[in-house]
Amino acid sequence: MKMIKFGFKYILKHKSNYFSYVISNIFQSSFIIVIPFIEGALIDSLTNIEILRFTKTIIFLLVASGISIFNQLANRYLYTILQTKVSFEANLASINSLYESSYIEFSKKDPAILNDSINQDCNSIVLFCINSVHSFLLNICSGIFIIVIISCYSRVISLGILISLALYSISYVLFKEKIYDKETRLKEKTSQYFGKLYTLVYYLKSIKLNGLKEFSFYKIKKVYEEFYQEVKNRQMIHSFNQGIRQCQYFCVNCFLSN
């Protein structure tokens, strides 16, 4: 929770940019749902040979597609600007805290590894805070929009989707910090792993002169095993989440195709 507060402390300094980005994402999500329906209406108008309806539908499709493309470009721009500004401010604040601390606390740490660790931690916190909340809102808005459309055809299916949406919301609230902790641990292990590789080369002369090669290689293997385990754990969680999403998309597509 402290990490999330840390991220939003700097994100909310750019409220207009952040909320514009969130709204842009919601619009983009609605276009992803709406455009296939317009395409379906276009095919129906061709089947029924209704020239006026076909003309109106294709104009509407072109306008919607144009707005979607423009919104997507604006969305990427807003994201890049927001991520760059917030990451810079978070990194600068973290480095500033070093100047306010005792030099003895971090004097034994390698400056390159310390700087890399600060950059990775700050960037991961910022990216998580930017993406997690807006992804949650997107899924909620998309789910509500789909429920409204499907309820016109089947209330039973819309009720099922509503239940799954509620379960998704509960699971997000319960597991968001655990997922973030896994991401943070992976970042830490990644930094440690590449830091150890760096020290093997940087202190090559000292290691050879003192006969510490075997010991140094033993330590790097231990760090690698921890890093490898975190990679596997993170990938399992990612695969599980992707599997759930694919199942949801498959069910909705099966319904729409029928």
Automatic annotation (TrEMBL):
InterPro entries: ABC1_TM_dom, ABC1_TM_sf. The chain crosses the membrane at residues 21-38, 58-78, 125-150, 156-175. It is a multi-pass membrane protein. Keywords: Membrane, Transmembrane, Transmembrane helix. One of its GO terms (molecular function) is ABC-type transporter activity. It is found in: Cell membrane. Residues 22-244 form the ABC transmembrane type-1 domain. Its main location: membrane. This is ABC transmembrane type-1 domain-containing protein.
